[in-house]
Amino acid sequence: MNISIIAFDEFTDIDLFLPWDLLKRVNAPNWNVQILGEQSYHTSKSGLTIPMHGNITLANSSDVVLFTSGPATRQKMKDTQYLSHFQLDPEKQMIGSMCTGALLLAAQGLLKGKQATTYPTAKKLLEGFGVTVVEKPFVVEGNVATAAGCLAAQNLVGWVIEKLLGTQVKETVLKSILPVGEGLSFD
Amino acid sequence: MNISIIAFDEFTDIDLFLPWDLLKRVNAPNWNVQILGEQSYHTSKSGLTIPMHGNITLANSSDVVLFTSGPATRQKMKDTQYLSHFQLDPEKQMIGSMCTGALLLAAQGLLKGKQATTYPTAKKLLEGFGVTVVEKPFVVEGNVATAAGCLAAQNLVGWVIEKLLGTQVKETVLKSILPVGEGLSFD
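Structure tokens for the assembled complex are given below, as produced in the milestone run.
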């Protein structure tokens, strides 16, 4: 099971690192989580440079593909060369996005005529792709899901884990990051 | 204003990246957030290698020092050479921890006879330092604060920002990561 997170320069830190850590907490055979980019390294909006695990073209053979967010999505949604690397198939793959990552799903025609959510500042841009943008943390349309607001990463990751490994694994993973006394207990 | 986050190998990803991103969202003059370690690079529990901004000794001249968490805290709490690098002063500095980072505060004598919180698996170890461990997401004792459960990073960061820059800045920063429709709105 290959789960790919798509990154690029100026990615929003939490929108990459929260899904990443949550997905890496899954203890299941052949569960491979990887961060993919165009270069060997990408630097976050806050200035952290991290190594990629592979090129974005690996997304095409992944079981799950999640697009992170950041200012660059506004350029990349118009970058036909960048977009041409992706041949994603929602019939065979689970595809999702955090915040403005929805613009990249829309630019690939994955949200046309569908409902989706995105970061407030990208609402109009997303509507420009013929998407019905709704004020919800998480929207699922078949095998395509959009989450918005960093903490909605929990919904997106929960959707992936529940669908692939069941409710119990999902709940165990999501519970592990809750505050002590508010989900996590000493018993 | 220098805010230092202390990292080490096998740090818990969210416990570093969530405070980091939140603190970097502050837009204030001379607001410098840095990640400090013993080496130039440290690798997270999930396998991400990131560059440090400086050596841990810079913590001693920082206004705020926050310890992240991870399995290594169990060794480092007994590592007198490691601990000797820190000469922190809660009279002059704000000092805090995420999850098992509380063990490092305790090992420096910063929690003796005080209340604190930590990750459930470290409760007994923390009690071994003469700390009263309470099942709460966040505990403040003067200028020393402990948070537990990854999402309690919001409490820890909120405490720092509110104390240094006021309630309004704190609320703006914390709101920016809430899910759409559950704190963040399209208006």
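Chain A touches chain B at residues 12-14, 17-18, 20-22, 24, 44-51, 117-120, 123, 133, 135-138, 147-152, 155, 176-186 (CB under 8 Å). DSSP finds seven helices and eleven strands in chain A. Further analysis is deferred to the final report.
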